[in-house]
């Protein structure tokens, strides 16, 4: 009985957290259309965020997904070689990167760079009364802080994911050329033939949802920061851990949905 | 003071509860337009809670608070925004937005809430910074300023919209006597040059006697005096005598208890 109660309480807490996220994101979306803030200035803040979230993340995402492309090719080739099917390495890398690893690795890098930064920024603003100051100036904190981040994220996550897909395939091609008798051209032809539009699109759909989760959790943790600078550290850690957990959970749910709707 | 004018701030039986502990026990007072009121009280007397209630940050209040003719307890979000455009609050630590320069901080409410030309806004920002003696620091970041300068910059930002009421939260707390005297002088100058109502929350006796038209003494959530400075010195109320003569509390735990409630 005690156990059931605990499970119930934990479930209720989890659902309340997700409900809180949905409410925050809903208010951030509403803030784009119905807030006293000027559109042009919100757009400026969103572009500024897009630079921080997206453009500055390109180098690190490029390197990581390039290496993951090479690693996938190496790991795949190890097994494929036994069946004399090493030429399938291009297909394997293309599908695993576009469907799964491109969006997931991008999300994890963005959590580390931006999700944590959102929590730390908003948390510090709470501790230094800046959030109260924003509120007393009749600038709504959610519209002022979360809305630009949300829009930056919704635009930049798919962009970064496409770039990550490309770099992953590029990484795979390096192994393909050195280890599997591909030429640069033939590797990319093989990749193109292996991929369906659906593979890329499901990855992009996931990346948009990941963007929602990362923004929501980062900002939510920031707003719920208690008093004192120590709490900012706690919020940041919690934003990273919760975001990674929820991103993987959302990934599972969406992959299952895609699997069931496609029947493959 | 003409008696036919309506009070600009009016509190009736204001109660604020954190959990089951009541911080303000039904206090009532009026502030007339262009009056300078100092709310004096020790730590845990409820003065910060009172200030937060007057600017609409503390929403757990019962009773009635009218600020510039709007009842804060029943105001809609849009009405609350209108009230907030008519008030300015200078925070204890300044609460300047750390990612913006001093000038941008002062310009923020003007940019968001008015349709003024950018050139006009720049001139207004310089006028406000001139008034607080920070004209040379327009392009500095808040982190590059000293504590006293941050407070003055916060005053400039609070005055940006030419508010009807200017609130100061502990203007001299944490400052050396010379800088604190400078802030007192700044408040006196504002009083002379602007037709503005000033509400100052402080525990500094010297500054209270210097700037106040009327002093409201708050003790453990009750108003124990609301009199001009001259009369306060003659008061025979034991708590006021204790405050004026800096006599330590016999039951020190009491204060600590109140303090803890503020941190929650």
What is the topological layout?
The complex is a heterodimer of chains A (264) and B (264).
Chain A: H1 2-33, H2 39-53, H3 58-80, H4 89-127, H5 130-136, H6 141-179, H7 184-194, H8 197-223, H9 229-262
Helix pairs in contact in A: 1-6, 1-8, 2-6, 3-4, 3-6, 4-6, 4-7, 4-8, 4-9, 6-7, 6-8, 8-9
Chain B: E1 9-18, E2 21-31, E3 36-40, H1 47-54, E4 61-67, E5 70-71, H2 77-85, E6 87-90, H3 102-113, H4 118-131, H5 147-159, E7 165-169, H6 177-193, E8 197-202, H7 205-211, E9 214-219, E10 222-227, H8 229-234, H9 238-244, H10 252-263
Parallel strand pairs in B: 3-8, 3-9, 6-7, 7-8
Antiparallel strand pairs in B: 1-2, 1-4, 4-5, 9-10
User: Quick one: how many beta strands of chain A?
Assistant: 0
Nearest-integer average pLDDT of chain B: 87
Share of helix among residues of chain B? 25-40%
Computed CA radius of gyration of chain A, to the nearest angstrom = 21 Å
Interface with most residues: A-B, 19 and 28 residues
Secondary-structure class of chain A: mainly alpha
Count of helical stretches of chain B: 10
Note down, in words, how this protein is organized.
The complex is a heterodimer of chains A (264) and B (264). Chain A contains 9 helices and no strands. Chain A is mainly alpha-helical and 264 residues long. Chain A has one domain. Chain A starts with a helix and ends with a helix. Chain B is of the alpha/beta class and 264 residues long. Chain B is 40% helix and 23% strand. The mean pLDDT of chain B is 87. Chains A and B meet through helix 4 and helix 5 of A and helix 2, strand 6 and helix 3 of B.
